[in-house]
């Protein structure tokens, strides 16, 4: 029998529901994200499966997992949804109607320092724009990007299997540092690494890439095993713990840069330094950014170049200072 192409029978709502279930792995969570009922999502998925003539999800106690056919359909469905959103947004902007819309994702530790200058640069060229900024773990950002929920992400390079269909462009690198409030007892300690366990410690969540960096730093500086610590991804919560609870906060440098500059926080002088962690722009390989997204991407690249230049200048000043102190200059 000759295969029939579904043509116009596949509607936007079919693709929205399909991508939401694929993203959340559960019909109930998908329904909540779309602000509709669970039966409505189930009915829509059933309609789509009937139209396509394939089963898209395996449903069980662990939720709804895409079948092989569902996995094959995800990038095409998300590309359609993304392209339609971009087209509608562009026409609305050009006609002077609704403001342009941009959905992006950033790691919380990146957004704390990168979002303000990026939003300022974006507003200069797009005075009427609605930005929906999602902050989440790197793994969650990659899933949102694949599902078409966001146009681009600022995050970290992940394992090859997670990066399928995605492209990573390194923007800059930053070290992980340990910071405490000004006047913290560790700042006057002759052996701060040995005394870390005497104070509350705030670490990135287990399984994140910066958590691995934190554990490597702790091992390299000879700190004793930690029996008690707080895991949190939120920069605002971790900052409050450092300022109010005498906690030692392991955080990427730029996320604490403003507090370090004004003296609210200070770096703990650990005997070992962490390796620099790359931060990059992550895009889908099967979709082109919208005009407003391209403006944001250009702004991100410019800010990254400025940060790189600033770090190189700071290192040069440090080398010159060391040479003067040693009498070599």
Task: Give a short synopsis of this structure.
The protein is built from ten helices and twelve strands. It is α/β, with parallel strands linked by helices and 329 residues long.
Your description of this structure?
The protein is of the alpha/beta class. The protein is built from ten helices and twelve strands. The model has no long low-confidence stretch (mean pLDDT 87).
Based on the model shown, name its key terms.
329 residues; five-stranded mixed beta sheet; alpha/beta
For the largest sheet, list the strands in their spatial order. Answer: 4-3-5-12-6
Biggest sheet statistics? 5 strands, mixed
Overall SS class: alpha/beta
Q: Kindly estimate the percentage of residues that lie in beta strands according to DSSP.
A: 15-25%
The pLDDT mean sits at: 87
How many beta-strand elements? 12
- Point out poorly predicted stretches: none
Share of helical residues: 40-55%
Distance between the termini: 85 Å
Tell me the radius of gyration.
24 Å
Encode the helix/strand succession as letters: HHHEEHEHEHEEEEHEHEHEEH
Number of helical stretches of at least 4 residues: 10
What characteristic shape results from the CA principal axes?
globular
Task: Tell me the layout of helices and strands.
Elements: H1 12-24, H2 27-34, H3 38-52, E1 57-60, E2 63-66, H4 68-94, E3 100-106, H5 108-125, E4 129-135, H6 138-146, E5 152-155, E6 166-174, E7 176-181, E8 201-203, H7 209-220, E9 230-231, H8 235-244, E10 248-252, H9 257-262, E11 265-267, E12 277-284, H10 291-326
Parallel strand pairs: 3-4, 3-5, 8-9, 8-10
Antiparallel strand pairs: 1-2, 5-12, 6-12, 7-10, 7-11
Helix pairs in contact: 1-2, 1-3, 1-4, 2-3, 5-10
């Amino acid at each position: 029998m000759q295969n029939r192409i579904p043509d116009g029978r596949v509607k936007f709502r079919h693709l929205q529901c399909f991508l939401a279930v694929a993203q959340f792995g559960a019909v109930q969570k998908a329904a909540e994200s779309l602000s509709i009922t669970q039966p409505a999502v189930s009915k829509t998925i059933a309609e789509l499966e009937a139209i396509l003539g394939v089963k898209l999800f395996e449903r069980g106690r662990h939720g709804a997992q895409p079948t092989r056919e569902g996995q094959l359909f995800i990038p095409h469905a998300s590309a359609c949804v993304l392209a339609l959103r971009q087209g509608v947004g562009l026409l609305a902007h050009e006609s002077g109607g609704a403001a342009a819309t941009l959905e992006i994702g950033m790691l919380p530790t990146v957004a704390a320092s990168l979002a303000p200058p990026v939003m300022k640069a974006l507003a200069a060229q797009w005075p009427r724009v609605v930005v929906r900024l999602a902050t989440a773990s790197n793994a969650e950002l990659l899933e949102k990007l694949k599902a078409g929920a966001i146009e681009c992400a600022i995050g970290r390079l992940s394992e090859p299997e997670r990066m399928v269909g995605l492209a990573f462009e390194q923007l800059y690198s930053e070290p992980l540092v340990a910071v405490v409030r000004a006047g913290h007892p560790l700042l006057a300690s002759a052996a701060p690494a040995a005394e870390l366990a005497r104070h509350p410690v705030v670490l990135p969540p287990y399984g994140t890439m910066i958590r691995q960096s934190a554990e490597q730093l702790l091992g390299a500086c000879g700190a004793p095993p930690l029996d008690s610590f707080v895991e949190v991804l939120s920069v605002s919560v971790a900052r409050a713990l450092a300022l109010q609870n005498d906690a030692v906060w392991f955080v990427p440098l730029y996320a604490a840069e403003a507090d370090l500059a004004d003296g609210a926080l200070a770096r703990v002088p650990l005997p070992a330094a962490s390796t620099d962690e790359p931060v990059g722009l992550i895009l889908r390989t099967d979709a082109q950014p919208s005009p407003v997204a391209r403006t944001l991407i250009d702004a991100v690249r410019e800010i990254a170049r400025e940060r790189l230049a600033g770090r190189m200048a700071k290192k040069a000043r440090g080398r010159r200072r060391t040479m003067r102190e040693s009498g070599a200059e």
